[in-house]
Amino acid sequence: MPNVYNWQLGRAMAYPYEEAHPKSQFAFVFNINRCIACQTCTMACKSTWTFSRGQEYMYWNNVETKPFGGYPHNWDVKILDMLNKANPDGQRWGAGGEVGPESPYGQFNGKSIFEAAEKYYGEAEGAKRVLGYLPTQEEWTTAPNIHEETAVGDLFEGGKQFGGSAQLPTHKVWFFYLQRLCNHCTYPGCLAACPRGAIYKRPEDGIVLIDQNRCNGYRKCVEACPYKKAMYRTTTRTSEKCVGCYPRVEGKDPELSPNGEPLETRCMAVCPGRIRMQGLVAIDEQGHWVADRWNPLYYMIRERQIALPLYPQFGTEPNGYYIPPRWVPRAYLKQMFGPGVEHAIEQYSCPDRDLLAVLQLFRTTQQIIFRYEVVKGPKVAEIEVTMPDGSGKTQEIYNDTVIGYNKFNIECVRVTVEEPTFERPAELHVNSI
Ligand code: SF4
Ligand code: SF4
Fold it and tell me: Does residue 31 carry a pLDDT above 80?
């Protein structure tokens, strides 16, 4: 297999195809701390793309409760188990790795799903390019939200409900919501496994699509996607997956983008919890992210590392990034998001002026923000914050104005850090009480 460079693993990695990179990459940041599991995103996607016969069980976007559940059921537990067998020394990070701009988390010393395939399957099952499994029908058809909002931990420790404590840095009783869709991976498992060459990554935006005319329904992509985001449709006998709402990203919505302004996907645009921000990041010919401090995604992911990839150890270099939840035991989070967890949570616990500014942009416009700027405002508050290590810190809040610009460098949003208040006039209104 050729070698490709995976910056999330901090090293080169075996992959069935040579490196080839798009001009820009569809990517997104989800702030787990803010999700209320309303499933508005799930239904926005379902009512747009998967409302037809044969798609009944398909949720290209879903929000599941962790640590239980998942859709299909236990998808991550199963692939992690397989990966553990292929990595008898553990899935270790760090030793031997150089931490730098191109490998901010150090080096992953275990085997990715591509490197583990040969050892795991052996000769008996024939050559396989990717470690994976096909979920059973029950795993797909049990309700997608099975075990929703089931907490773990000792509910009655010391005779008191919730162990008598619900204090940061981590809670004794906990769960959290994980928002999931196709990660439009840099090195997709689905694409690597397809024997028909039916899956491709668009050169303009890195969106991963299945060519429905070439697909023969072998379900190799369903087996190989470690996130289980490729799905089989019995009525057409082909596989389908999230299409990244590509007509919106292309600016083809005649009503919302009359001048061709790229829009965020449906699941991003509807989020009432304001946890989601999607973007397009520029990629150079070597496959590196082009440094751009004023692209909101570049700033959060690469410069500040406040948002982390989901299961980077799988090796697909997923392009979905998460601000991890503050209250969850760190060992669990580190398995899920890699070694950058402490750093990300520490920054999020007491965001400085620059971070607070960029965080204001979440869900303020349907247009994709390509650049933003900050106009400095006066200091309006000082807040005492307890940091994850128990120490105290003073957060200074400035009422800065944050301005977002679209692809054509035209202002598409303007917000202030301090939410403006409006006093209603004294006269009666229809909805007055
Ligand atoms: S719409 Fe937003 S807040 Fe609601 S479940 Fe989806 S990600 Fe969470
Ligand atoms: S998340 Fe799965 S379906 Fe999406 S690109 Fe990655 S491997 Fe393919």
Answer: yes
Q: How far is the CA of 247 from the centre of ligand 1 (A)?
A: 22
State the pLDDT at residue 422: 85
Neighbours of 366 (CB within 10 A): 20
Quick check: 311 and 76 in contact, CB under 8 A?
yes
CA distances from 115 to 3, 16, 110, 223, 270 (A): 11, 10, 9, 16, 38
State the distance from the centre of ligand 1 to the C-alpha of 322, rounded, in angstroms. Answer: 13
Could you read off the pLDDT of 246-284 as tens digits, one per residue? 999 999 998 999 999 999 999 999 999 999 999 999 999
Ligand 1, CB cutoff 6 Å, lining residues: 35-41, 63, 179, 271-273, 275-276
**Which residues make Cβ contacts (< 8 Å) with residue 400, sequence separation at least 6?**
353, 356, 357, 374, 375, 376, 377, 416, 417
In the chain, what is the straight-line distance between the N-terminal and C-terminal CA atoms, in Å? 70
Cis peptide leading into residue 72 (ω within 30°): yes
Do residues 412 and 367 lie in contact, with contact meaning Cβ atoms separated by under 8 Å?
A: yes
- For 9, what's the count of Cα atoms within 13 Å in the CB-facing half-sphere? 26
Task: Please give all residues whose beta carbon lies within 6 A of any atom in ligand 2, as ranges.
Answer: 182-185, 188-190, 208, 225, 227, 229-230, 241, 316
Distance of alpha carbon 168 from alpha carbon 388, whole angstroms: 7
Asked if 404 and 412 touch (Cβ cutoff 8 Å), the reply is: yes
Q: CA dist 39 to 30, 68, 226, 254, 269, Å? A: 14, 17, 23, 27, 13
Q: Tokens for 50, please give them.
A: 């998967």
Ligand nearest to the CA of 227: 2
The Cα–Cα gap between 157 and 173 comes to 10
Q: What is the pLDDT of residues 363-378, one digit of tens each?
A: 999 999 999 999 999 9
Q: Quick one: which atom of ligand 1 is closest to the CA of 63?
A: 5
Report the DSSP pairing between strands 320-323 and 24-31.
parallel
Mean of per-residue pLDDT scores for the chain:
92
CA distances in angstroms from 261 to 173, 312, 417, listed in the order given: 45, 32, 26
Taking the centre of ligand 1 as the mean of its atom positions, its distance from the CA of residue 31, in whole angstroms, is: 10
| Percent share of the chain, pLDDT over 90 | 78
Q: Which atom of ligand 2 is nearest to the CA of 201?
A: 5
